[in-house]
Specification:
Helix content: 10-25%
Shape: globular
Number of strands: 8
Strand content: 25-35%
Low-confidence stretches: none
Structural class: alpha+beta
Radius of gyration: 15 Å
Order of helices and strands: HEHEEEEEEHE
Mean pLDDT: 95
Number of helices: 3
Oligomer: single chain
Largest sheet: 5 strands, antiparallel
Length: about 130
């Protein structure tokens, strides 16, 4: 099956797995998805991840994170901002703030895929991929 927007497919698979209280989700790999996964891990939104090489495009195995007391997922909302039909860009001066700084925006810049806070620090703009909180 050909996916027209792989990032939206990635986010939807994560959202569906969280809603179904799955502990692990597998998604087809790409360099962009690997970078987004690394950011989600670094910011504490997922428990762990593993890149599995098969002889095709590869698989990303993601261990989802939940609160042990309430069993609530660490990610409450994943929103795709820039879609294939309408790209959203932001320059360094008007980068988005998610939940007044409590969430993160993942941005594809000339310096790689980074969060909104890192982009502000590096003074670069780019395509706003998604919001996470």
């Amino acid at each position: 099956m050909k996916v027209t927007d792989p990032i939206a497919d990635y986010l939807t698979r994560l959202r569906n797995a969280l809603k179904a209280n799955h502990r692990v989700v597998e998604v087809p790999a790409s360099n962009m998805k690997k970078e987004i996964t690394k950011i989600l891990f670094d910011k504490g939104y997922i428990l762990n991840y593993k890149f599995i090489e098969d002889n095709k495009q590869g698989i990303i195995k993601i261990a989802l994170k939940y609160n042990p007391q309430t069993n609530e997922p660490a990610i409450s909302n994943l929103t795709r901002v820039s879609k294939s039909g309408l790209r959203k860009y932001a320059n360094a001066s008007n980068l988005p703030r998610v939940l007044n700084g409590l969430g993160i925006a993942i941005i594809s810049t000339s310096k790689g895929v980074i969060t909104d806070k890192e982009a502000k620090k590096e003074n670069v703009g780019g395509e706003v991929l998604c919001y996470v909180h």
